[in-house]
Every structure is written in structure tokens, then in C-alpha cells.
Write a structure and sequence with these properties.
Length: 240
């Protein structure tokens, strides 16, 4: 048996080839897994679980079919889809888990994050993150009509070109010392995250033990996943 991890698909109506590649991945690779972890920015934007866009229904149906076949699906929030709630998660057969969850991955304690919280040198982003993750902002945002929320989301994407960009150069990398601190505190020897669109395996020493930070890639011209089993972990890339 094995476990799969993906992140940063940035599913959106404007990128149907990514949705197709994801459905193919579910039907071929994920169907063989015991669990699938989605580590954020699965959707390019999320305005609320009441969004009735067809893409969201199709993705929920595909995920639920996978869950029905016995694959556990876990989901943690990215910086673009952090408003995804339990209504949609239930519809898609996914279990929401907090950013920073530690799992026992075939004997190796493994910390799971999206990665944006590790970008501590971006002070203004961290302030924004704290605001939008809080109840007052979310309540106020979700109280607006779907049309109004769509307009705000479109405006936000337009305002900041980098928010709309998929290039790693336009996304700040994490602060390595912050990853070190979080891994030491969680007492893990492995961290898996996405967000930066810089897929790589970084060897580390954590609490005097050999450790590793593995970064997932985004889905663009290539797709990425991590496959873990009793023999270890692999970071896998394939062309879309
Ligand atoms: Mn992200």
C-alpha cells in the first residue's frame, strides 16, 4: 500500500487541461493508494462553499467516487482556497485537516503544511494571512452575494500580478530557519509542503537526526506528486 501527496493544482475553469490531468491521476494512480493528501491551493480561488460553478461539482463527484472505492482523502488549506469549508469537503468525501498536521507515515513522523506560513520574511503577507484566516473577516466576506464575492476575487487577482502568476520567481521562497523551528517543535524528521512551486528534496538535521524537507511542485506543464510506502518516499514528475 502507498500514500500520495499533491498540492498547487490551481484548478480553474481557464485551465481545463489541468482538471483532465487530475481526473486521470485519480482514476489511474490514486485509485491504488490507501490515502490521498491534498496540501492546499488545489483550487486557484475559493469564494465559498455555496459557489455553484460546474467545475466544483465535477471535482467533488470525482473525489467522492474515489473515496467510495476506499481511498481516504485529506485536505489542508492553501493561501488561495482557505475558505473551503466542511460543506464542500463532505460533498467531495474529504476530511479537512489543519495546516501543520503531523502524521505517522509508515513509521516516519511527517509534518504536513501548505508552506505559506513558513514565508516569515514577508511580513505584510503574514499580516494579511492573519486577517483573512480570522472569523470577523470571513463572516463579513461570506455574508456578501456570490456575484459580489466573485468580483472581489477577480479584483484581488488583477490588483496583484504576482498573485495571478504561477512562476516560482514571483512567489517568495520559505524561510529555511522557520521550517527548522517548526520541524524541531513538532519532533519530526520529515516535512512535506507545497506553495513555492519549487519542487525539491532538501536534506536537513533536525534534533541531531537526519531529516528532510520535500517540496511538491505545482501542476502546469508538468504534474507532481509524492508517493510514500514502507520503502520510503519518491518525488515524481510527469508531463501533462
Ligand atoms: Mn500557495
Amino acid at each position: 500500500m502507498h500514500t500520495l501527496f499533491i498540492s498547487d493544482l490551481h484548478l480553474h475553469e481557464s485551465r481545463p487541461q489541468i482538471t483532465r490531468a487530475f481526473f486521470h491521476f485519480l482514476r489511474t494512480q490514486a485509485i491504488e493508494a490507501e490515502a490521498l493528501y491534498i496540501l492546499g491551493d488545489f483550487f486557484d480561488v475559493w469564494i465559498g462553499d455555496d459557489d455553484d460553478a460546474q467545475l466544483l461539482q465535477e471535482v467533488a463527484d470525482e473525489l467522492f467516487a474515489l473515496k467510495d472505492k476506499g481511498v481516504a482523502i485529506y485536505y489542508l488549506h492553501g493561501n488561495r482556497d482557505f475558505l473551503l469549508g466542511t460543506d464542500y469537503a463532505n460533498k467531495a468525501g474529504m476530511t479537512l485537516i489543519p495546516d501543520g498536521t503531523v502524521i505517522d507515515l509508515y513509521g516516519t513522523p511527517t509534518l504536513l503544511m501548505h508552506g505559506d506560513s513558513l514565508c516569515t520574511s514577508d511580513v505584510s503577507y503574514q499580516q494579511f494571512r492573519t486577517m483573512v484566516r480570522g472569523a470577523p473577516w470571513q463572516t463579513q466576506f461570506l455574508a456578501q452575494s456570490i456575484a459580489a464575492r466573485r468580483a472581489i476575487a477577480a479584483q484581488l487577482r488583477e490588483k496583484s500580478e504576482s498573485m495571478n502568476s504561477m512562476k516560482a520567481d514571483d512567489i517568495l521562497d520559505i524561510t529555511p530557519a522557520e521550517a527548522q523551528t517548526q520541524m524541531e517543535a513538532a519532533r519530526v524528521t520529515r516535512l512535506i509542503h507545497g506553495h513555492t512551486h519549487r519542487p525539491a528534496r532538501h536534506p536537513l538535521i533536525i534534533n541531531e537526526q537526519p531529516a528532510e524537507r520535500i517540496v511538491l511542485g505545482d501542476w502546469h506543464d508538468s504534474a507532481w506528486c509524492i508517493k510514500a510506502d514502507e520503502n520510503g518516499v519518491e518525488l515524481i514528475e510527469w508531463k501533462i
